[in-house]
Amino acid sequence: MPEQHQGFFAMLSFVVLGAVDPEGQVWATLRAGRPGFMAAVDARHLRLGLARDPADPEDAGMEDGDALGLLGIDPVTRRRNRLNGTLRRSGADAFTVAVVQSFGNCPQYIQQRAALPLRDPRSAASAPPVVSERLDGRARAIISGADTFYVATYADIAGGERQVDVSHRGGRPGFVRIDADGRLTVPDFAGNRFFNTLGNMLVNPKAGLTFVEDGTGDLLQMTGRAEVLPDSPEVADFAGAERLWRFEPQKLVFRPAAFPLALSLVANGWSPSTLRTGVWEQGRGEGPLEAMPSP
């Protein structure tokens, strides 16, 4: 990790993690702590003061030696850095990531938000998770209203090494379409040209998506299969899209108030790159900026 990355992770109040459970299913999750809960031991090791959470489906993939993807975002400045490596654990209250890669990303499609505490981040949510195999009305409402979600993917490479990646996706509310068969269709906008997410999907279709309700901290976590659609004619129907990808949810976990922060959209917080994109109902039209919802 460069020194700038080390300092950046230390100032954050939450992190996005991606991990693979023993069945080979990949999950994304959000975890929070007081600034300083992440700290660099040195340039190759990042310590996270996060206790195990058995209610989180990702927890089963966070044993000593497991591969881990990590995304840090400052919702005020839109700065983000990604990291992947190997989890090292000697207890249930914290773990360390032995860093393999650490790299920055551009701030595109990140809406500007204020992070406000809903409860002590060290306390667990009281409501039990709800597990299902298909989208219900609540899940559909969360997805349809979302301008942000997180996606985890992974690839097994030569020598038995596994690399997990977790990434941010943003757009206007409604940019994720729920199809009649329950699959999700997602536009892929111009970005960093790293293609970590899509590259992983091309060699391994397993993916995990997570949506968070801004005001309540409700988390909707899904694992399933993704398919990249590079030549879909529907690309022409969505402003800003370069290609599409489709996700088939196979297992869903709804966790009420699991995330202890409220991420509130600030005034004029829409990313300029988001405002240049459309939504499915608008087709190619971008729509007037005043039509965007206000915080």
Automatic annotation (TrEMBL):
Pfam families with a match to the protein in the record: PNPOx_N (PF01243)
Protein name: Pyridoxamine 5'-phosphate oxidase family protein
InterPro entries (UniProt xref): Pyridox_Oxase_N, Split_barrel_FMN-bd
Domain Pyridoxamine 5'-phosphate oxidase N-terminal positions: 137-239
Protein species of origin: Roseomonas indoligenes
